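haha ok so turns out i had the wrong file open the whole time. this is the CORRECT one, sorry everyone. sequence first:
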Amino acid sequence: MAASEKIVLITVKYRASRGLGLATAKAIASLSPSYYIICGIRADSQAETHQSNISTAELDITNSDSIGAAVSHIKDKYGKLDVLVNNAGVSSKLPNIVDNLTERISVNPLGSTRVTEALMPLLEKSSTPILLFIITVLGSIAARSDPTHPFTQIEATGYRTSKATLDLLMACYT
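then structure:
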């Protein structure tokens, strides 16, 4: 591996063949051929990236063993991580607010924290480490409190709460 190569891990919910995770991977990969992108996906996912500098690795952000295996893979193959994009998350609808919050909190902020903490030693080996968390305006307390905001009426209490938590978590890492 050349010193100029940048190793990027993007956590992806289920598929590397569509969605924000793949769009992010393609955007970063297009910046330079020296960027090597790894899409961390669940074992039951299908990977269809079709680009030579984008690959996949098994990673379930809710499973400590899966996270450990992904960390070992990156450490053994690259020895460092330059960019971590915490993108994986869940937003499905559950009717019970407690179940809704439990699922979203366990995946969105806690999953991202598990991955970030496990990969921090590899990020620290980079000369220019970058840590990113994908959040949304739905997690904004100011937007939710503004009756004129277009997304005020969207009912997504669990998702909003988990993304607001993720936003604060990101601030704590800076």
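The helical segments are 19-31, 64-78, 97-123, 141-145, 157-173.
again sry for the mixup
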